[in-house]
Write a structure and sequence with these properties.
Blueprint (H helix, E strand, L loop, with lengths): L3 H14 L4 E2 L9 E2 L2 H12 L4 H5 L4 E9 L5 E8 L3 H12 L4 E2 L1 E3 L2 E13 L7 E2 L2 E6 L5 E2 L8 E6 L10 E7 L2 E8 L1 E9 L5 E8 L5 E9 L4 E8 L2 E9 L5 E8 L2 E7 L5 E8 L11 E6 L5 E4 L2 E11 L7 E11 L2 E10 L4 E8 L2 E9 L5 E3 L3 E2 L2 E2 L2 H12 L4 H5 L4 E9 L5 E8 L3 H12 L5 E2 L1 E3 L2 E3 L1 E9 L3
Parallel strand pairs: 1-7
Antiparallel strand pairs: 2-5, 3-4, 3-7, 6-7, 8-9, 9-10, 9-11, 11-12, 12-13, 14-15, 15-16, 16-17, 17-18, 18-19, 19-20, 20-21, 21-22, 22-23, 23-24, 24-25, 25-26, 26-27, 27-28, 28-29, 30-35, 31-34, 32-33, 32-37, 35-36
Main location: membrane
Organism: Spirosoma sordidisoli
GO molecular function: energy transducer activity
Length: 485
């Protein structure tokens, strides 16, 4: 019995000696590094960092230095703050860095080994702004131009309630300066609106943000799922999307970033482990104009192996999608084929790992020539267009004739000399009927109602959109012009 403590001590000593050695980079034959190199990690960090609102308001810039251990399997462990900036920035740096799990391990004597790494995470300095009691305060001159501060030129003041990540979470109050006193002038409502879309995980999406008096989204707008998790973040100016857009995984990492560049959208996508996945471009959609094929410039698998370089390459390409057997589950979508000059070429195949869907297509310079697809429990469908946009019966010419014969200029709008464009949003259903009408860019109450009446009169006159031979619901935006002769 007296030997028992000694045995425990002996076992503990052996256990402590059994811990693998952690090397410094100079002690290895090849040091650990991010797949894609440091530029890849830097892009990942800057894309994912959400500067805390109080640090942003103060214009804080600086860096947090973090340490960790790259394990032999490429995972990152034991992450700590080595050099602090401030607590809220430290927490954000830890959140993002800990989710990057795409490392090439260090090697010594031909074996993967553990290695210490030290990485600086930079928060860029920003222009400071007033932030009081959870409200971002902005000042504008008499022409409603944004001012850097509350100078003598200020005639309007705007209070925007925001959360810790800078997202709006309440009504915006607008004040006007009258006789040296700020008087409340207007309220821009904070809106939570059910979307027609679903997240990549099959959950309902709600759009939250601020709507102007003309019913247009303004500023930073977020799409969240039914649990409140961030799905997408965009920026709007008077209802039109501007700047970049971010899509998110359920772990909070950015899945995809799209940037508006000279009539094109430029996309960068990442795997859930932080590994860069794909870079490609796509044309902006234009009503009545066939969509050009996307151009893929580069693609990497989740282990960092590059399959497409400068638009050329072939291999197996994977993506998590919603199962066609069970909308509450995800499955792996596996596609195989070749890219030439950024475009699909030759034979392409695709299948859902759970067996719920399969397709085969032939391509020439990015254009689908023939294809066939089958959903579990349904017959095989054949097609010559991978995607087909909804179309008014008779095409654009028929649509023009319909508008000319149906549209009426409201008399009160004529008398007021109102002219311009109204934008109507609606959904073309799988049977060609229309639903979910909305005036997304109003002009004048009477004109808005007339545009809405005309669009509703189109019900049943549309050919539905299709994807790989199957009719699908498609949201459509139609501009309707009113011009005085």
């Amino acid at each position: 019995m007296k030997l028992f403590p000694f045995i425990l001590l002996f076992l503990a000593t052996i256990s402590s000696f059994a811990q693998p050695v952690v090397y410094q980079s100079f002690e290895t034959d090849s040091a650990a590094e991010p797949r894609g190199g440091m530029p890849s990690l830097s892009t990942f960090l800057q894309t994912n960092l959400r500067k805390p609102i109080e640090a942003e308001a103060q214009g804080i810039g600086g860096r947090v230095v973090l340490s960790g251990i790259v394990e032999p399997d490429g995972r990152l462990s034991d992450i700590n703050v080595v050099q602090s900036l401030r607590p809220d920035c430290d927490r954000e740096a830890l959140r993002v860095f800990s989710r990057f799990q795409a490392w090439r391990p260090a090697y010594k004597n031909g074996k993967a080994v553990r290695q210490f790494v030290s990485i600086p995470v930079t928060f860029k300095a920003s222009k400071p702004f007033p932030y009081v009691n959870g409200n971002r305060i902005s000042y504008y001159d008499a022409n409603q131009n944004l001012l850097p501060d509350s100078s003598d030129l200020a005639r309007y003041k705007q209070l925007t309630p925001t959360d810790s990540n800078g997202l709006p979470n309440g009504n915006i109050l607008v004040y006007q300066l009258k006789r040296q006193v700020w008087k409340e002038q207007a309220t821009l409502p904070f809106v939570r609106k059910r979307s027609d879309l679903y997240s990549r995980y099959g959950k309902a999406i709600y759009r939250i943000g601020v709507v102007q008096q003309n019913n247009q989204w303004q500023g930073r707008v977020a799409d969240v799922d039914e649990t409140g998790a961030l799905v997408r973040q965009s920026f709007y100016n008077n209802g039109e999307r501007v700047g970049y857009q971010l899509d998110y995984y359920s772990n909070g990492l950015v899945a995809q970033r799209s940037d508006d560049a000279n009539g094109l959208y430029v996309f960068n996508a990442w795997h859930p482990n932080g590994q860069i996945k794909q870079i490609w471009t796509a044309d902006k959609p234009k009503p009545g104009t066939p969509k050009s094929p996307d151009q893929v410039m580069a693609y990497w698998d989740s282990t960092g192996r590059q399959l497409v370089t400068e638009g050329n390459g072939s291999g197996s390409f994977t993506e998590l999608v919603q199962s066609k057997l069970d909308s509450t589950r995800q499955t792996l979508f596996i596609e195989e084929g070749t890219y030439a000059g950024g475009l699909r070429e030759g034979r392409w195949t695709g299948r859902y790992a759970d067996g719920s869907y399969v397709y085969e297509e032939q391509y020439e310079k990015g254009i689908c020539q023939t294809g066939k697809a089958r959903t579990a429990g349904q017959d095989t469908v054949r097609y010559t267009q991978r995607e087909q946009q909804p179309e008014f019966a008779g095409g654009m010419q028929g649509l023009g004739q319909f508008l000319a014969s149906t549209l009426r200029y409201p008399p009160d709008a004529q008398r007021a000399h109102v002219q311009g464009q109204v934008m109507i949003s609606f959904v073309v259903c799988t049977d060609g009927t229309l639903c979910d009408y909305e005036v997304v860019k109003p002009l004048h109450p009477a004109i808005d109602q007339e545009a809405l009446r005309v669009v509703k009169a189109m019900n049943g006159r549309w050919k539905p959109g299709a994807q790989r031979g199957q009719n699908v619901r498609v949201q459509y935006r139609m501009p309707i012009n009113f011009a005085l002769e």
